[in-house]
Design brief:
- By secondary structure, the chain is mostly beta strands.
- It has one domain: Sortase (Sortase, Chain: A), CATH 2.40.260.10.
- Helix content is 10%, strand content 32%.
- It contains 3 helices and 8 strands.
- An 8-stranded mixed beta barrel has the order 1-2-3-4-7-8-6-5.
- 39% of the residues are buried.
- The N terminus is likely disordered.
Length: 214
């Protein structure tokens, strides 16, 4: 089991999904609070099992925080900020600004480490328009994602799946649970917009590309 798995999964199981997608007025604290998802107090009843890396899995990279993210297929080239937890236990999201950025959930592995590295982004940013992950649902298996790391290296991933799920059915284990190879999760909101809230979450799953295949 990776060092990440127990701590981060036990934290993330109470988080569930992206706290807010900035569909309403970003200047209204009451609006933000009304749309924030509250953390549950439950934790898994048993430890996560150890898993063996699949044949052909990429060799993990050293720990180094992401500073930028590129997704050529949907025109994303964004700096990356660090995110944690809010006071109410919900996952922090990037600030709502005209210069929208993606954020790395710092209780997850860094991109290229063994385990699921989780990055979040807005689909819209209120009066500022489209968010950095507006077109995330257009990604397809095989599309490339590159994370530039603080130590000057890059981690290159290939999309394996794109899922749109109802927020009430958010697959916490699939997103934050233990995996035996370096993987990536990108999360935003999606689906129909009801009032100022999106019904679903869009989740992109990707795997680190072995060095010889980049």
């Amino acid at each position: 089991m990776s060092p990440y798995s127990r701590r981060a999964f036990l934290t993330a199981v109470g988080i569930g999904l992206l706290a807010s997608c900035a569909g309403g007025d970003p200047a209204d604290p009451a609006d933000r609070a009304d749309r924030a998802d509250r953390a549950a107090s439950t934790t898994p009843s048993a430890p996560l099992p150890s898993v063996t890396p699949p044949a052909g899995a990429a060799r993990p990279l050293e720990r180094s925080a992401p500073v930028a993210l590129r997704i050529p297929a949907i025109g994303v080239d964004t700096p990356v900020v660090r995110l944690g937890l809010q006071a109410d236990g919900s996952v922090e999201v990037p600030a709502i600004t005209a210069d929208d950025r993606a954020g790395w959930y710092r209780y997850s592995p860094t991109p290229g480490q063994t385990g699921p590295s989780v990055l979040l982004g807005h689909v819209t940013v209120g009066k500022y328009g489209d968010g950095v992950f507006r077109r995330l649902d257009r990604l397809r298996p095989g599309d490339g994602i590159t994370a530039r790391l603080e130590n000057g290296t890059t981690a290159e991933f290939a999309v394996t799946a794109v899922r749109t799920v109802g927020k009430k059915e958010f697959p916490t284990t699939d997103v934050y649970g233990n995996v035996a190879r370096p993987e990536l999760r990108l999360i935003t909101c999606g689906g129909p917009l009801t009032g100022d809230e999106y019904r679903d979450n869009v989740i992109v799953f990707a795997v680190l590309i072995p060095a010889g295949e980049r």
